[in-house]
Amino acid sequence: MSAESNPVDQQIPRENGAEAAATSNADQVVTPWEVRGKVADDGTVAEIDYNRLIEMFGTRHISPELIERFEKLTGRTAHPFLRRGLFFSHREFDMILNRFEQKKPFYLYTGRGPSSGSMHVGHMVPFLFCKYLQDAFDAPLVVQLTDDEKFLFKQELKLDEAHKYAVENAKDIMAFGFDPEKTFIFSNLDYMGGAFYRNVVKIAKTITTSVSKAVFGFKDSDNVGKLHFVSIQAAPSFSNSFPAMFGPKGDVPCLIPCAIDQDPYFRVTREAAVKLKYPKPSLIHSRFFPALQGPGTKMSASNPNSAIYITDTPAQVKNKIKKYAFSGGGDTAELHAKNGGNTEVDVSFQYLRFFLDDDAELEDIERRYRKGELSTGALKERCVEVVSELIATVQERRKKVTDDDVKKFMDPNYPRKVMAAAPKK
């Protein structure tokens, strides 16, 4: 991948692009720490305008042609997340497909900010997708656990507690079925040093305080660690941060699946890559997984009433969806039958968009709900079934994670297969 600057990046003012998305567009707020749709005069929160985000961030839509090319090269049907537009935006995903076609190596990079002892179902989205991409590309994966970030950004969180959450979340991630011979999961508090920290320092030198303030909205009252963390999240984008896997050159590019609120970090990273003569990371962005309260929010592990955890029992899942999941249905059964429901704001339907594999069933549910033939109660029942089944599968795998598994996944020197496979025919 070329390290030269991309015209798409040049179109965005480099010191105010992300802040513009957060503040100049008064109808919604999207930053790495806060996501909220437009608030109407009556206090209702609208769904996120993703087309607006693409315009503000300067990314590109994932086109049907790009999905078709992915399917042709990998020999696999596109994941539901792709074909339903849940991963909807990208930066140079086509460059990764070029490398795959040319049989050149690349790797996947994603992360998790451990703010609780259990992940919620929204956190499953990037890991389900990374597992699919790892299998499709036969590519290695690195997973950054940002326990240091959570300590810096959460005033009440103790350092040891943040690290404990990281280890527990690592076990959750292992339960998604990743191959330890192609996957490295690391805590920043444990792994920081050596080649990784060398890159952190190099990156930090390319980012001014004014850029950090403008892009991320940092204030003088914020601790200095918050500003510095920008360079820490950027470091896994460069392959020589993992010399045991990719060698010392830093010439292997990566693909980063993430929610679009993380894009400001990686736009800064892509600019640092140009200055350091590294390949720029490619990105593929997902929509937000909505909180139970509605589509203008995103689920938070720190708010138990907004989240369904992967440790929840079937009874807890049922209670949360039945009691808290925002409905797009009519106020009464009569009004619902007459006017139908709104699937764009109905949380139960949105969860089915993410987790119901059967396209035909999803289309049938959408058609009947919009016509008022399917009740809100019936829709929530189907959502409970699908989410409970998914969580039960992860819970069973989680029980089988051993201490030896943890050592394999989190040992930087564990022998791993790191070359991307040739295209499958």
Give an overview of the whole structure.
There is one protein chain. The protein has 21 helices and nine strands. 49% of the residues lie in helices and 9% in strands. The radius of gyration is 21 Å and the shape is globular.
Task: List strands and helices in order, with pairings.
Layout: H1 7-10, H2 17-24, E1 29-30, E2 35-36, H3 50-57, E3 60-61, H4 64-74, H5 80-83, E4 87-91, H6 93-101, E5 107-112, H7 124-137, E6 141-145, H8 147-153, H9 159-174, E7 183-187, H10 188-191, H11 194-206, H12 209-216, H13 224-234, H14 243-246, E8 254-259, H15 263-276, E9 282-286, H16 314-324, H17 333-339, H18 347-355, H19 359-371, H20 376-399, H21 403-410
Parallel strand pairs: 5-6, 5-8, 6-7, 8-9
Antiparallel strand pairs: 1-2, 3-4, 4-9
Characteristics:
globular, disordered N terminus, alpha/beta, two-stranded antiparallel ribbon, 425 residues, 21 helices, 9 strands, single chain, disordered C terminus, 7-stranded mixed sheet, 49% helix
Number of strands: 9
Tell me the major beta sheet: 7 strands, mixed
- Principal-axis shape: globular
Helix content: 40-55%
Tell me the number of helical segments per DSSP (H or I, 4 or more residues long): 21
Order of neighbouring strands in the sheet with most strands: 3-4-9-8-5-6-7
